Structure prediction request, 127 residues.
Amino acid sequence: RTFPPAESRWVGRPKSPGVVPSVDSTSALMAVSRLSLIKRLFWTLDRQNTGILKQNDVRLFAELWGFRGSSSEWDSEFRRLCEYLCRPEEEGLDLVAFIQLVNDTSRRGCFSSDGDLAYLCKVLIQA
Prediction:
């Protein structure tokens, strides 16, 4: 299987109750660069402040994107994701790997628009 899986436990867009706000419609984020948004999302997901996203941190990101698999299915997905990003599974994703993931427009990546990144940051900060 590819990441996100073809039969898709991932829906392909962040789950939101309505329209995903774009950076253009969010005045506080208008001047924020894409890299800054990615870094903000990474550090928001990194709840232990280690500079590494562990399996549960990445699962939170995946669930916001619509992943609805079981724990064993997530274990398999995370393993494949780490292999794809050339990261040891036990180490998790560093910032460079996360940047690669959210900028990857292939079927194996999880491209996130600037609006997606801003929305995900907002959801996680409010949680």
Summary: The chain has five helices and no strands. Residues 1-8, 16-21 have pLDDT under 50 and may be disordered. The two ends are 32 Å apart (CA to CA).
